[in-house]
Design goal:
The chain is an alpha+beta fold. The chain contains seven helices and 13 strands. It has two domains: about 5-40, no CATH class; about 60-220, Alpha-Beta Complex (tt1808, chain A). Strands 3-6-8-9-10-11 form a six-stranded mixed beta sheet, with helices on both faces. Strands 5-4-7 form a three-stranded mixed beta sheet, with no helix packed on it. Strands 1-2 form a two-stranded antiparallel ribbon. It starts with a helix and ends with a helix.
Length: about 220
């Protein structure tokens, strides 16, 4: 339990109607989970949608720079992971189920121990080991807000945020206290994934097509 959670619990316990407040919250969360099940049943597989704090969030089509950055990184990561058979990489339409919310990260990685339990008909997945979000004007507040907090709270070990306009990447990693620590923010140099062993690429390969092809060739030749 974080310090913030402890403070909230402490404040509620100081109130004479604490039992009623707890019951109201319990009832509201139960109703919210019913809506979450309806969301799973009703969602169109061709639409990118997420369930966040009881609301269904439908995402608008993204710009080319967003698709290009996500696609290049996905190609590199998937090629590397499949070549060395060290897990499973999903993109965009892979839905991860956190304790309260359900997200479709732009890219996510599950290690070998976790992914060995997946089946071919699976559509809902547990929290990943690595998630990547590519910023857009409409989603930046979500990627830096509730998703950041939720990925951290659900022990997603590493979180990357890509800015396709500034052509930079931020790399966050859980520290020993379970809190995200920023370990890299750059548009140059290399990024070394802490979760995917051996995955170390030039950052420019995410934004430059020629560099991407060069790195893909290097991975395949290993």
């Amino acid at each position: 339990m974080t310090t913030t959670h402890k403070n909230i619990v402490h404040d509620i316990l100081q109130l004479p109607d604490a039992p009623s407040i707890v019951q109201e919250v319990t009832d509201a969360l139960a109703e919210e989970q019913k809506r979450r099940i309806d969301f799973y049943n009703d969602i169109d597989e061709h639409v990118k949608a997420e369930f966040i704090n009881g609301e269904v969030v439908i995402h608008s089509p993204v710009k080319k720079r967003h698709t290009s950055a996500a696609g290049r990184l996905y190609a590199l990561l998937m090629t590397y992971v499949e070549k060395f058979r060290i897990g499973f990489v999903g993109n965009e339409k892979v839905m991860i189920e956190c304790k309260r919310n359900s997200y479709e990260p732009d890219i996510c990685y599950f290690d070998k121990d976790k992914s060995k339990h997946f089946n071919e008909d699976q559509s809902i997945y547990p929290p990943a080991d690595l998630t990547v979000e590519v910023l857009s004007k409409r989603t930046a507040h979500i990627d830096r807000g509730i998703k950041y907090e939720d990925y951290e709270a659900n022990n997603i070990r590493e979180y990357w945020i890509i800015d396709p306009i500034k052509e930079t990447i931020e790399q966050y990693r859980l520290d020993e206290t379970g809190t995200y620590e920023l370990i890299l923010k750059s548009g140059e140099g290399r990024i070394k994934c802490e979760v995917v062993e051996g995955f170390n690429i030039p950052i420019r390969a995410i934004f430059d097509a020629d560099e991407n092809l060069k790195v893909l060739g290097e991975i395949l030749s290993k």
